[in-house]
Amino acid sequence: MIVITAPTGNIGRALLAKLLETAPAAGEQLRVIVRDPERLPAAARGHVEVITGSHGDATVLDRAFDGADAVFWLVPPDSSQTPHDGWSGFTGPAAKALATHGVRHVVGVSALGRGTPVADRAGLVTASLAMDDLIAGTGVAYRALANPSFFENFLEDADSIRDNGVFIDVVDADRKAPLVAVADIAAVAAGLLLDRSWTGTDDVPVLGPQDLSPNDVARIMTEQLGRPVRYERQPFDELRTTLVGYGLNEEFAQGVVDMKRAKDEGLDAGVARTPDTASPTSFEQWCAEVLAPAVR
Predict the structure, then answer these.
(1) Model-level pTM?
(2) Sign of CA dihedral 50, 56, 62, 68
């Protein structure tokens, strides 16, 4: 039995689709934890066991982890909480339930940065790494998917790209860093959940096919969208003011700023890309298949 949390989010939805294709042939049953079962894709209905509720709820987890062999763990960021409460606090009931029910394997969504000089002051990433330690401390075999920023983050700028030909961030325009498609993360997660021959605790970097700077991203967007797109760098203080103005918890907003500042200082540069850490979807492909329809 494989338990999938957050099955209606970007990564969870892609993972569920992959497992629906491959798990039956491997003799695996699927169980999902979801607040609103109506949001599950039609292909999942009748083919997965549904536990309704939040995976931050100990009572829900007690039902969901009963008889489970493996768990896919993803914490949905909650901007109303502090980073610590949002990651380790949310995961606390799961850590207890994993031990209570003898779950042996967990695959979690985390971040790059462990071992780098800025890892302890990287805001949301620091909180995510602490969550990894909490899960690993239960004694389960654990694989933390160590991810850079997602291609999908650019969808937040789709309106600005369409209307003004601009996307905004705070990192240096020439800072190259890995970027990855969520579908590639889901593919790696599916492989780990189905082949549980691994033991112990480790990070599994998913780095995309190449490092890109904001200027590289603007060039590729321009080519793929057929219209000029440029990058505009926003000051860190302005980002924090904007986030707090949106109503985010002030510590969470600072966590976003600290994460982005750490990325600008090389947080994501600590792992070399190899055939094992690279993933296949190019930014050009993603722009053509995902960003272009969103902008149009």
Answers:
(1) 0.95
(2) positive
Q: How many domains does the chain have?
A: 1
How many CB atoms are closer than 10 A to CB 159?
Answer: 11
How is the chain split among helix, strand and coil, in percent rounded to 5? Answer: 50, 20, 35
pLDDT of residue 9: 94
Pinpoint the alpha helices (H) of the chain: 10-22, 58-64, 83-84, 90-101, 124-136, 158-164, 182-194, 214-225, 236-245, 250-264, 283-286, 292-295
> Does any domain span residue 171?
no
Kindly report the CATH number assigned to the domain that includes residue 37.
3.40.50.720
Task: Tell me the C-alpha to C-alpha distance, in Å, between residue 192 and each of 127, 165, 179, 188, 199.
Answer: 23, 40, 21, 6, 11
* Cα distance between residue 141 and residue 198, in whole Å: 7
Calculate the CA 191 to chain-centre distance: 16
Series of mean pLDDT values for 10-residue runs along the chain (296 residues): 96 96 90 96 91 96 97 96 96 96 97 96 98 97 98 97 97 97 98 96 98 98 97 97 96 97 95 96 98 96
**Phi and psi at residue 17, in whole multiples of 5°?**
-60, -40
What pLDDT, on a 0 to 100 scale, did the predictor assign at position 24?
84
Tell me, what's the pLDDT at 25? Answer: 86
Residue 159 falls inside a structural domain: no
Q: What is the pLDDT of residue 45?
A: 85
Nearest Cα neighbor of 125 from 70, 185, 203, 71 is 203
Contact 110, 135 (CB under 8 A): no
Helix axes 250-264, 124-136, angle to 10 degrees: 100
Domain assignment of residue 250, yes or no? no
48 DSSP assignment: S
